[in-house]
């Protein structure tokens, strides 16, 4: 640790976002003095920062920047008008973005392995990092550093800094900052790339699917000729994005003729097994302690990239067999008197569909409840009403919450949950709408029975429902005769 690093104070505005909190921890490990601020600290990252001893001021205030830090990192959720952003600009304090400093401080000089795509990138990045961690037990030079948009259970962390040459990072297509509207992943300069899915998402910053594809095409264009791309074979959107790559492209999926082809997939009791053909020939057989066809695809992508970069098959098989998932991805929050409560980050109709399909496979015969808070910038808009009805229809009991901060969405763009409710009921599904988390708990807690599975879907805190529902069920157990 240099004297400059020891003395340098870096302040992160919007520190409780997953990536920002992780970056704060990484900067602290490098020896910087780190502070941060947010509108309101919220778990899991607020707990994570507390464990690291990083002070979080709330709410945003100019006072949080006094005395002035040496550098300010502005989160991508912040915009002009924020008190701290305005103070930084008025005082001409040095500032940068999370993506830019991640490249300059951590990726530069390393082999950059980037996982990108509309769906699956957090889980796939976690799998890839764990594969390299297991492989490093045999070959120390493979030990990875990584930055993931979620807490990888195998590590108990969303980041790791080690002395090896490998840096693995989740490549987010969301914009970088109010002063840099390009995708964050354009800062990461991949030596090798996984591209999982490409769909219309982030309706607040992309006008249509073509704009999303343009972003991914630009990422593909950054991979050098000596690099590799491992790309999903299941959609024409991905095919179009990799069509003009200057490096080898290896497709993975279920299609005959794909370089990495999944075969004989079986899901049983929360585990998935399958085999993979490589170039048409038998290559490996895998077991994953997770349900979901989408998770087998994620694992195959991670396995394919790692093997192509020199990781041994035996290490890949061991890593997938012992993979422990990611927080908020099909995470069992509690089991109370036979009722299983599951938390999932599902932020898009496709993600909702795959989550519910995975739960059907894991809990065959169970009555499946889905509780959805439309919170992501895409779900809060009316761009996927039909797809949302179809995805939610996979559950037996459907509970809709009010749209998060609906008033911040222009009227003509807003999702109206009443329309979703009407579509579900017209299709013959049992569906209800309740305005708040408290109302939802009041409505469903008395009706839950042993054997039920409740999937709570939100990309935010959902007003504490993850704690409120278990608490109500435990209270009912205590007072039951």
Automatic annotation (TrEMBL):
SUPFAM superfamilies: MurCD N-terminal domain, MurD-like peptide ligases, catalytic domain, MurD-like peptide ligases, peptide-binding domain
One MF term in the entry's GO annotations: acid-amino acid ligase activity
Annotated Gene3D superfamilies: Mur ligase, C-terminal domain, Mur-like, catalytic domain, NAD(P)-binding Rossmann-like Domain
The Mur ligase N-terminal catalytic domain, residue ranges: 9-100
One Pfam family recorded for the sequence: Mur_ligase
GO biological process, one term: peptidoglycan biosynthetic process
Keyword Protein biosynthesis: no
Keywords assigned by UniProt, alphabetized: ATP-binding, Cell cycle, Cell division, Cell shape, Cell wall biogenesis/degradation, Ligase, Nucleotide-binding, Peptidoglycan synthesis
Segments forming domain Mur ligase central: 115-306
Every Mur ligase C-terminal domain range: 328-460
Protein name as it appears in the record: UDP-N-acetylmuramate:L-alanyl-gamma-D-glutamyl-meso-diaminopimelate ligase
């Amino acid at each position: 640790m240099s004297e400059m690093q020891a003395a340098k104070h870096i302040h992160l505005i919007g520190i409780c976002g997953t990536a920002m909190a992780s970056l704060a921890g990484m900067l602290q490990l490098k020896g910087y003095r780190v502070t941060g601020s947010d509108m309101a600290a919220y778990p899991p990252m607020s707990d994570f920062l507390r464990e690291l001893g990083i002070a979080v001021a709330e709410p945003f205030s100019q006072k949080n920047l006094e005395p002035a830090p040496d550098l300010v990192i502005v989160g991508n959720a912040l915009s002009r008008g924020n008190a701290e952003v305005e103070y930084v600009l008025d005082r001409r304090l040095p500032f940068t973005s999370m993506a830019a400093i991640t490249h300059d401080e951590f990726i530069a000089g390393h082999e950059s392995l980037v996982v990108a795509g509309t769906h699956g990138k957090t889980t796939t990045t976690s799998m890839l990092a764990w594969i390299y961690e297991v492989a490093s037990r045999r070959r120390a030079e493979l030990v990875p550093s990584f930055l993931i948009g979620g807490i990888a259970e195998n590590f108990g962390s969303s980041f790791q800094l080690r002395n090896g040459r490998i840096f693995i990072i989740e490549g987010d297509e969301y914009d970088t900052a109010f002063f840099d509207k390009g995708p964050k992943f354009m800062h990461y300069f991949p030596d090798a790339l996984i591209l999982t899915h490409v769909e219309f998402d982030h309706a607040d910053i992309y006008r249509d699917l073509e704009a999303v594809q343009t972003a991914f095409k630009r990422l593909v264009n950054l991979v050098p000729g000596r690099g590799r791309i491992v790309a999903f074979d299941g959609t024409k959107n991905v095919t179009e994005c990799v069509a003009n790559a200057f490096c080898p492209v290896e497709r993975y999926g279920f299609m005959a003729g794909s370089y990495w082809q999944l075969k004989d997939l079986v899901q049983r009791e929360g585990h998935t097994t399958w085999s993979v053909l490589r170039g048409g020939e038998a290559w490996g057989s895998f077991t994953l302690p997770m349900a979901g066809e989408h998770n087998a695809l994620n694992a195959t992508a991670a396995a394919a990239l790692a093997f192509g970069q020199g990781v041994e098959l035996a290490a890949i098989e061991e890593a997938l067999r012992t993979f422990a998932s990611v927080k908020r991805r099909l995470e069992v929050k509690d089991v109370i008197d036979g009722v299983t409560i599951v938390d999932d980050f599902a932020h898009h109709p496709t993600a909702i569909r795959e989550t519910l399909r995975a739960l059907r496979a894991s809990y065959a015969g169970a009555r499946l409840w889905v509780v959805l808070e439309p919170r992501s910038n895409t779900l809060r808009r009316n761009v996927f009403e039909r797809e949302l009805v179809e995805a939610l229809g996979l559950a037996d009991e459907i509970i809709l919450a009010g749209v998060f901060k609906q008033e911040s969405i222009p009227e003509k763009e807003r999702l109206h949950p009443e329309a979703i409710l009407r579509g579900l009921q017209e299709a013959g599904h049992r569906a209800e709408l309740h305005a708040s988390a408290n109302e939802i708990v009041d409505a469903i807690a008395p009706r839950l029975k042993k054997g039920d599975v409740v999937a709570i879907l939100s990309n935010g805190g959902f007003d504490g429902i993850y704690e409120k529902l278990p608490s109500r069920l435990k209270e009912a157990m205590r007072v039951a005769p």
